[in-house]
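Reply to dn_fold:

You asked what the input looked like. This is it:
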Amino acid sequence: MHVPGSVPPPAPEPQETPAAPDIGHPARPGPTDPAPGPGRHARRFGLPVATALVMGNIIGGGIFLLPASVAPFGTVSLLAFGVLTVGAIALALVFGRLAARDPRTGGPYVYARGAFGDFAGFLAAWAYWITTWVSNAALAVAAVGYLDVLIPVNDHRWTACLAALVVQWLPALANFAGTRYVGAVQLVSTVLKFAPLLLVAVGGLFFFDPDNLGPFNASGSSGIGAVSAAAAILLFSYLGVESAAVSAGEVKDPRRTVGRATVIGTAGAALVYLLGTLSVFGTVAHDRLVTSDAPFSDAVNAMFGGAWGGWAVALAALVSMTGCLNGWTLLSAQTPYAAARDGLFPAAFARKRRGVPTTGVAVTVVLASLLTVYNYTSGSAKVFEVLVLVTTFTATVPYLLAAAAQIFHLVSGQGEKVDRARLVRDGVIAAVAAAFSLWLVAGAGYAAVYQGVLFLFAGVLVYAVMAARRRRAEAATAP
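and this is what came back:
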């Protein structure tokens, strides 16, 4: 029997026949996720698709809208981007190391539960699940801004709301079709999105005008405060760094592939982000950028004149965001699936069809749709920013628990044997990832932390019910 807080034993090779859910000892790891199962609709991801999943989920709606969201802070947000990149890569390395130790579907949930037991695992799963469906709502709102460049939908609130709902449900239908289609959509959308991004990121440097940059710190707060506040919004653009780890059960040779895909995908996304944001800042006048609903379209229009370039970028942005929603919809179901197999989420979340946890997909898209409708009917002028800040806080919970799990394994001396130099390096990386997560909680602001804590506390009640049901089931089966 496994002792709470100890390192899970090496997982066996995936089998074709699914194992029964683990509802035994509170901290005992569940069975390694099997392959999605035979059939033409389920397929395991190799390195290219796993990397595309990471990059596609990172480079989604964030890069296409966030330059305008952080413009009010001034060019100090570029410094925030640099700091954020260091933290994101540290997280990527931590997830790679943890996935090599325990390559099961669930990502931060699996790592937190293996190190600290059921309650920590549940908090990671619950917070990450909230992050995914709130992120889906935010991405849909961002997509509507670019759809408005092609078709005027923002003139009426309900038209915009309906468009956001359609954008969410189309990727959900691809997920219901099976992992084969999820991977295909992800790969195609990741390739297509790079044309406009590279056009602006590289081409924009030739049209760069320093006069467009505006003030260095336009927020009026201290330099550190401005960097933290900008980074809290920018974190949304890096959500997805854990994508390959969360879907490890659907990845070929996950001990090797997950780490490589995570680092390659994060580094590639960081390069595109930094160049793209710098180019947008230098091609669109600051006062125009602050009020822009489609900053990349505005950048291309400023570079070449007319509206054709903006239309092309808007179309590519929609493809990109649809692909991102496709990947996030899958991730939104994976963590509840892993938790349900361990008896910490309702059993319905553990059901799979064609390699996809369909109940998780359905519940997620319904919740995201309800949140979208609520935000549009509330009349908030900054729907995207509000949703982004909530996900910033909830995302830091599983990130911090994952970093803490890595520190736990390193300090306790459990797991694989490593030399002292590697131990020190891994310790420094884990410490940077943990400090980075704490810093982001502070930068999210009081309102985001307040709303996020309410979401977390609601989860505590769900955990109480699920734990009681497990205890009752164990008592009924005890000799």
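The CA atoms of residues 137 and 371 lie 7 Å apart.
Hope that clears it up.
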